[in-house]
Design goal:
Elements (H helix, E strand, L loop, with lengths): L2 H24 L10 H19 L4 H24 L3
Helix pairs in contact: 1-2, 1-3, 2-3
Amino acid sequence: MNKIMLIVINVITGLFVGINTLIGYGLSGIGEGSTNNIRIFMLMVIWVVGLILQLTLANKLIGLVITFIPVIFLILLYTAAYLDWG
């Protein structure tokens, strides 16, 4: 994979996960039942672990997959809220 494309993907996914983590932390106590803050911060921790694995040559593909886990989770969460699945 092209190095510039990998950097662009990491910046976009990092901003997406980071902004949603901060928004989730800020809004966690507003609803009927509050979410534990550690669960919200785990999304960012998982993304950082994926980024660290991408920096090693042997684990680049595994790191890319782990980086997309929080992104896919957040997209599914927004889709479920929009379509009223839950």
